[in-house]
Amino acid sequence: MSIERPVIRPRRLRQTPVLRRMVAETAVRPANLVLPAFVREGATEPVPISSMPGVVQHTRDSLRKAAVEAAEAGIGGIMLFGVPTEKDAVGSGAVDPDGILNVAIADVVSEVGDAITVMSDLCLDEFTDHGHCGVLAGDGSVDNDATLEVYAEMARAQASAGVHMVGPSGMMDGQVAVIRTALDEAGHRDVSILAYSAKYASAFYGPFREAVDSSLKGDRRTYQQDPPNALEGVREALLDIEQGADIVMVKPGLPYLDVLRAVRDAVDVPVAAYNISGEYAMLEAAAANGWIDRQAAILESLAAFKRAGADVILTYWAVEAAGLLR
Ligand code: PBG
């Protein structure tokens, strides 16, 4: 006598929303989200960024309000980027205590205190007239070790302004160690480091160039990673942890979920992912054309980051998504 095998039916667990939620393998929480925000020196009104509909270059005042709104939404952090009026070859505005990013850090910290983690991009590309992430050598190449000295000074300036966490994003070798040492020696032992560890030379940063009025000509391929490489991303993350990174990040996001998963599996610190400007712009453009369900696509994107192993997600939709996730 033969026993008939029942059909295995995975669909049973998909029958109702509450059941799907009960068995969901992952869930994004508002506290996992970080809002990147731009602040423009001298601006009297927020300036829209045309390639990122819904995102603006803030005035100092509107940034304070955005930080309060972000804290009230229950998100985990806000990552600040400064847009200076004057740029020069060495990015002087980045280390000046009165530079736009440093004053904005102080503004936000005084406004929201510890209600949100205040983070700052630690890189020179917003401040240099050539748009590179570091200072240049005589032959026009980016001078790694000379740049490290500026990063150390930038870290001290940001920490003095009260930042909770710095985000070195320039892909200079040794940057995390130099920044950790600079912070410790200046007494800022509790300022943490979110390292942009596996950061790729990506075409998807396009809209960000408009967001920070970047004057970059050429590319960053001699210091940012080459898109075909995944193991190298893991290596960069491990090196950053050895140097003192508290959180390591993979960037861009959606085109690099495999790297995110590989890094998550290789390290024992929190891993962040950056859902970058080009990813934002593509989804918004498709939604504006009626080609995609905007909210559903945003939530699906965030779920994908979580599934691939992200503990923390930087996204321009952070505040809106926090509302949708409640
Ligand atoms: C460097 C930095 C960049 C981004 C974040 N930090 C640009 C770059 O390295 O070219 C891109 C973020 C985005 O595209 O949303 N300061």
Number of domains: 1
* Assembly classification: single chain
Question: At the fourth CATH level, what is the homologous superfamily?
Answer: Aldolase class I
Q: Unreliable segments (pLDDT under 50, ≥5 consecutive)?
A: none
CATH architecture: Alpha-Beta Barrel
- What is the CATH class designation? Alpha Beta
Distance between the termini: 54 Å
Per the CATH scheme, the topology name is TIM Barrel
Helix percentage:
25-40%
Number of strands: 10
Widest beta sheet: strand line-up: 1-4-5-6-7-8-9-10
The secondary structure category is alpha/beta
The run of helices and strands is: HEEEHEHEHEHEHHEHEHHEH
SS element count, helices: 11
Please state roughly what percent of the residues sit in beta strands, choosing from under 5%, 5-15%, 15-25%, 25-35%, 35-45% or over 45%: 15-25%
Shape: globular
Biggest sheet statistics: 8 strands, parallel, barrel
Radius of gyration: 21 Å
- Which small-molecule species are bound to the chains here? ligand PBG
Would you mind describing this structure in some detail?
- This protein is globular.
- Strand 2 (47-48) and strand 3 form a beta hairpin.
- Helices cover 37% and strands 16% of the residues.
- It has a single domain, classed as TIM Barrel, CATH 3.20.20.70.
- It has 326 residues and is of the alpha/beta class.
- The model has no long low-confidence stretch (mean pLDDT 97).
- An eight-stranded parallel beta barrel has the order 1-4-5-6-7-8-9-10, surrounded by nine helices.
- Helix 7 (231-242) crosses helix 8.
- The structure holds ligand PBG.
- Ligand PBG is lined by residues 121, 123, 125-126, 169, 205, 208, 276-277.
- Residues 121, 123, 125-126, 169, 205, 208, 276-277 line the site of ligand PBG.
